[in-house]
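Task card 7
Instruction: Convert sequence to structure tokens.
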Amino acid sequence: MKAYLKATLGSIMISVLATGCNQDSSNSNSVSTNFAVTGSGQNAVAQGQFQKAFSFIMPSAIALTPPLLVDSNGTQVDLNEAWIALKHIQFKTSVSDDSNGNSVAHYNGPFYINLLSDQPVSFGEIILPQEGLRRVKMLLHKGNSIPADAPAGLSGKSIYFNAMVNSQNLIFEADETTDFSISGSNAVVPERDKDLLTVIRMADLFKKIDLSGINSNTTISSSSRFPAVNPCPEIHPSASDLYTCFRMGISQEARFGKDDGDKDLDANDEVVNE
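Output:
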């Protein structure tokens, strides 16, 4: 079995029933920038040199697919589908999420994102105050009206993965509509010529989960969590099932930051969470 990640050739579908952004009118020092969500390997996200005015036609964040996926034991994983659906994206200036008082702007969806696509993805331009952002809060969404190129398994789900491991089919699906937040103490100040990016590191996610118990075709869901002993200590030491590993791991392996033009979210980029 080949261990190379299969990136679908179809373009990323961002299905928007209602799109909008609000800014804090009390802050006159605002800037127009872009925001993107992507899945990637350890080399996070590449940024093209496209003009912001054409962001809906030719968006500027490009997913880089990881060359190899393995679990925590080094077992090869062939990931065929990876989608996430988001309803609402909100930017905040504080690490804490105690209230909406520090919210500065938001997008409304839903948005259906193919995390394995090689195509650029952007939610388009948004006006943000030039002050430090420390949190992006995204609401997971489940709906029955999904994009034409999305897998049928995404219907009614907010997260859907389909993979082969140990020569068996593995499906992870979540029907949650809970918050999915990325935060940290480092402040990221929006700039006109630098995209804000959220990157989910798929290779790092799978590398922290023990999938040795998958010895038959398996669907992991909120109602079938697949009990396991110490399956992901790096993600959640007290986890006792694979559902918890995947759901918490997606948040843990996500990064939010600003690309400095070197085509990656690395040590040279401003990132809220290390």
